[in-house]
Inverse folding.
């Protein structure tokens, strides 16, 4: 060992001697019997209900191997003894001695005797007698014999001293220090203690001879909590119930044991879990008898008064408790193992264990009920002066002073709202009585924002009406020292802008954004950045994609000025989606990936915030045919996508999930996802989400051959004539393109190619003047499909060629593949006719064809139409059915033509129309499907 020397005078955390007052000399003190001493010198037997904590056992093993002394320090009930006894019971390659220390071991002679007996049980030969029938030998002589025996022991030896906090006498402590100091490298010591034992700990740490495990290490992890209840019951706990237990007990072993007991006794598990606090009878008894009642009166009062604090430092404790030496008392609490936990490496901020804090608060209310409000207000004053406004508001509310809480919140609302604590700010606002809240316009604006984020748009509009009434009252009062009513009016407009975006009222949103951005003096950076984001969404929805880079450049410094990293996350989602809409997929991927990294950093890997950029990134990966990457993002983050209020997040998440399910052959699940999305959108006034879901549902139903069901999704849209449809969408917009696309697909399914072509030509003209490349490609493909169904093969090929030329620079993939058989057939014909490896566009077309062939070979979607007798895209004509019946007899095209009086080319044409309507590529597949549907025998 490298740490040498003897222990000095022992002191407790308050600076006073740690000696225990005695009523008798050591010789006269009551000594334990030999039988009891023998029990304390043996490794405790393990309960069969204990779980084996492999993680901790491995940590303990590593600690013992690297250090001479291992200290396991934690408050009572954390399983210190159980852990060490588990470790000791499994040792075969070394000898383990055990001693459970008690106050009797303050007598050095008795301590040496007990250590000798412990070592003897471990197989250490003790040559010097340490006691006789008449008297014990002097402690120093006995200790020398003990040291000689340890040094002469041939196997590795570990001494476990359990509950060493019971030994407080300096002479006994010095004896153990000598034992640590004078033995060789083959000797190790494990100490368990409720508090920091003064055994040269500082020196041992300095020389690297001390390894430490604390309460944080000992707390049960989630999987250990699950294993504990699987062993101890109840056995049917849900994941949510386990989470509640883990949070309340903080992995404390005794807390878990108590929970297991009371759950078994309780008729209502939910009621029991809600009442799992420190004022339960069993915990009151434990904390009261084991800890609180044993403390001096001054420390008891300190614990009670500071128990109202969720976290505390010395100055805050002094302000609340009136104690000038709060730092000394905090250190004393920590040294005594009073369930106090440091929150930072410098040990500036602390908190109490949740259940212990609840116990103290209950006792405070019982003993000093009239002081509680005063303590909270003292905490409020200190926290407000320290700039910790949110915590100050919490204490004002706890004191029942809601007026003071409202005043603080209103005065600091702007700064708090632009911080990363928006959820907490709004929660506190909602705790105010409505008569107070409705007098605070800035608070009302925060509440409106939260309602908008939760898609409760009507409720938000009602709050904004109340807010406007209050602003009008303030304007009429005209107090020079009053709030800036013009600024408040701008904030109301900014919330109305949010609502307009959510309702897809894009022209109004752009008007409001323009007014707000021209305001003088300017809005604060955080709000101004948000306005720019909404403006970007409004312009993107109207397919005006020319300002993306400019807006991104303007918002970045605003987020920096506001100190809002959250703003960067939301900006990445907006800008990334705009890049994707213009076909800049590499830029979109870069921006969204950066946003995910920032979100993970901010949320410490919680998934709510990460879902904001994750959903558009999943849609981008899907477009690039990285189905596994898209699926991974959807599976992990879509369940969290309703935590933040971005419509795009929901749209891209649900639609991408439905498309992946469709590719997996889970057609019914895909349709159900879209039905849920439509219901969600309709119930909250999110028109764009509703239209996106309906359009996608129509597309999938038609692709699965469920034509009637597809038509029934939106009967109003189905009934529109081409003229009325075009009149509704004279100008380009994302929502108009979606509605028109769904209408065209239904027209094609009914064989109405001419009106479908009229609509496709209109949209190709509209999109030609925009930067919306993926959307323009989509409409090129729709025109190719319409022309093909109309029998115009050459024009259909030219439309496809146009789509390929637009798409090649941005490398779109699923836009082509999801169109199915017609586009695949046209790609085959183009390849046969003229594709060469010399052209970049031709190579891209060849790549598309290869992917289309692979998709066709593994397409599971036939199963989606097997249960429906309308399983084809449009009804078969009489001639098409005649051709199919003969083709199913496996005769050549020439023979079919001779039988029906058709040319061989015409037969090929009719067969292709059949393939397209069935969504297949081969004659055998068409025949199989026709037999399944009962169309041929």
């Amino acid at each position: 060992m490298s740490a040498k020397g003897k222990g000095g005078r022992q002191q407790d955390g308050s600076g006073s001697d740690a000696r225990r007052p005695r009523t008798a000399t050591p010789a006269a003190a009551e000594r334990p019997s030999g039988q009891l001493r023998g029990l304390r010198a043996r490794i405790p037997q393990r309960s069969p209900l204990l779980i084996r904590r492999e993680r901790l056992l491995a940590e303990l093993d590593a600690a013992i191997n690297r250090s001479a002394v291992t200290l396991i320090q934690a408050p009572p009930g954390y399983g210190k003894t159980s852990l060490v006894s588990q470790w000791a019971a499994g040792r075969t390659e070394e000898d383990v001695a055990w001693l459970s220390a008690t106050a009797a071991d303050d007598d050095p002679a008795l301590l040496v005797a007990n250590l000798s007996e412990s070592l003897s049980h471990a197989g250490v030969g003790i040559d010097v007698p340490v006691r006789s029938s008449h008297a014990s030998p002097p402690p120093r002589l006995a200790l020398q014999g003990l040291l000689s025996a340890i040094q002469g022991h041939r196997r590795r030896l570990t001494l476990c001293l359990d509950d060493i906090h019971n030994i407080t006498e300096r002479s006994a402590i010095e004896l153990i220090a000598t034992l640590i100091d004078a033995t060789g490298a083959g000797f190790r010591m494990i100490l368990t203690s409720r508090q920091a034992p003064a055994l040269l700990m500082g020196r041992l740490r300095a020389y690297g001879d001390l390894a430490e495990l604390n309460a944080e290490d000992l707390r049960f992890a989630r999987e250990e909590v699950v294993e504990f209840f699987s062993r101890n019951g109840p056995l049917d706990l849900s994941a949510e119930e386990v989470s509640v237990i883990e949070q309340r007990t903080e992995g404390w072993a005794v807390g878990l044991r108590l929970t297991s007991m009371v759950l078994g006794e309780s008729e209502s598990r939910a009621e029991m879990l809600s009442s799992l606090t420190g004022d339960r009878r069993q915990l009151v008894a434990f904390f009261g008898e084991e800890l609180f009642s044993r403390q001096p009166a001054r420390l008891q009062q300190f614990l009670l008064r500071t128990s109202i604090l969720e976290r505390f430092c010395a100055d805050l404790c002094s302000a609340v408790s009136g104690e000038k030496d709060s730092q000394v008392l905090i250190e004393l609490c920590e040294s005594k193992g009073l369930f106090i936990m440091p929150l930072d490496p410098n040990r500036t901020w602390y908190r109490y264990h949740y259940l212990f804090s609840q116990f103290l608060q209950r006792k405070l209310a019982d003993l000093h009920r009239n002081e509680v409000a005063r303590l909270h207000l003292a905490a409020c004053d200190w926290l407000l002066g320290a700039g910790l406004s949110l915590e100050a508001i919490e204490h004002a509310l706890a004191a029942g002073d809601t007026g003071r809480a409202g005043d603080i919140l209103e005065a600091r609302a702007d700064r708090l709202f632009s911080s990363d604590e928006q959820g907490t700010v709004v929660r506190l606002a909602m705790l105010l009585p409505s008569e107070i809240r409705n007098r605070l316009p800035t608070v009302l604006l925060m509440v409106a924002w939260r309602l908008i984020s939760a898609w409760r748009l009507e409720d938000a509009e009602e709050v904004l009406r109340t807010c406007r009434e209050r602003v009008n009252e303030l304007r009429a009062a005209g107090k020079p020292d009053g709030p800036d009513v013009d600024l408040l009016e701008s904030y109301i407009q900014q919330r109305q802008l949010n609502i307009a975006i959510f309702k897809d009222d894009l022209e109004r949103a752009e008007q409001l954004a323009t007014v707000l951005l021209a305001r003088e003096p300017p809005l604060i950076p955080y709000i101004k950045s948000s306005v720019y984001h909404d403006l970007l969404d409004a312009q993107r929805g109207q397919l005006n994609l020319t300002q993306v880079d400019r807006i991104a450049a303007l918002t970045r410094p605003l987020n920096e000025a506001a100190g809002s990293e959250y703003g960067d996350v939301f900006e990445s989602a907006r800008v990334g989606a705009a890049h994707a809409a213009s076909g800049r997929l590499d830029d979109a991927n870069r921006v969204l990936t950066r946003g995910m990294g920032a979100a993970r950093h901010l949320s410490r890997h919680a998934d709510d915030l990460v879902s904001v950029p994750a959903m558009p990134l999943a849609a981008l990966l899907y477009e690039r045919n990285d189905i596994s990457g898209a699926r991974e993002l959807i599976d992990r983050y879509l369940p969290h996508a309703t935590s933040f209020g971005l419509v795009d997040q929901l749209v891209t998440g649900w639609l991408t999930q439905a498309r992946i399910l469709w590719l997996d052959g889970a057609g019914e699940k895909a349709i159900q996802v879209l039905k849920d999305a439509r219901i969600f959108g309709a119930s909250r006034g999110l028109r764009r989400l509703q239209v996106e879901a309906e359009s996608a549902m129509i597309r999938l139903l038609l692709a699965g051959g469920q034509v009637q069901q597809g038509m029934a999704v939106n009967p109003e849209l189905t009934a529109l004539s081409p003229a009325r449809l075009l009149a509704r969408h004279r100008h380009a917009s994302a929502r108009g393109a979606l509605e028109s696309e769904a209408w065209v697909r239904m027209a094609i399914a009914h064989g109405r190619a001419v009106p479908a072509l009229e609509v496709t030509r209109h949209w190709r003209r509209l999109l030609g003047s925009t930067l919306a490349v993926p959307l323009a490609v989509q409409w090129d493909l729709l025109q190719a499909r319409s022309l093909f169904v109309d029998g115009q093969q050459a024009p259909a090929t030219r439309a496809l060629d146009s789509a390929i030329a637009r798409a090649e620079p941005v490398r779109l993939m699923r836009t082509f593949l999801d169109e199915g058989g017609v586009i695949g057939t046209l790609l085959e014909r183009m390849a046969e006719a003229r594709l060469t490896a010399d052209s970049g566009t031709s190579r891209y077309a060849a790549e598309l064809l290869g992917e289309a062939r692979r998709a066709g070979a593994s397409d599971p979607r036939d199963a989606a139409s097997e249960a429906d007798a309308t399983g084809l895209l449009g009804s078969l004509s009489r001639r098409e059915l005649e051709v199919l019946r003969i083709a199913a007899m496996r005769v050549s095209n020439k023979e079919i033509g001779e039988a029906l009086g058709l040319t061989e080319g015409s037969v090929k044409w009719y067969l292709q129309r059949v393939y397209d309507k069935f969504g297949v590529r081969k004659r055998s597949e068409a025949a199989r499907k026709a037999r399944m549907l009962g169309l041929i025998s």
